[in-house]
Amino acid sequence: MVLLESEQFLTELTRLLQKCWLSGNVFITLKKYDGRTKPIPRKGSVEGFEPSDNKCLLRATDGKKKISTVVSSKEVSFRWLIQTY
To answer: Which of 31, 44, 60, 73 is the most exposed place for a label (fewest CB within 10 A)?
Structure first.
């Protein structure tokens, strides 16, 4: 999966949507992201991890190509996303 900056993500998302406009699907998912890059161990406590401000992991795929970006939760607006496309 490719982690992109916000502007690059929107550019690539536009390309995916244009490519799949007549035939195909694009799946967009949004998930809370706390900044962890490793899974939480089952036993023991996680020490020294301070979550930063709330962030969201935004992903898009057409089944072949996957793109993603991390944005602040304050920047995320479904209404904006739907109106854009």
So the answer is: 44
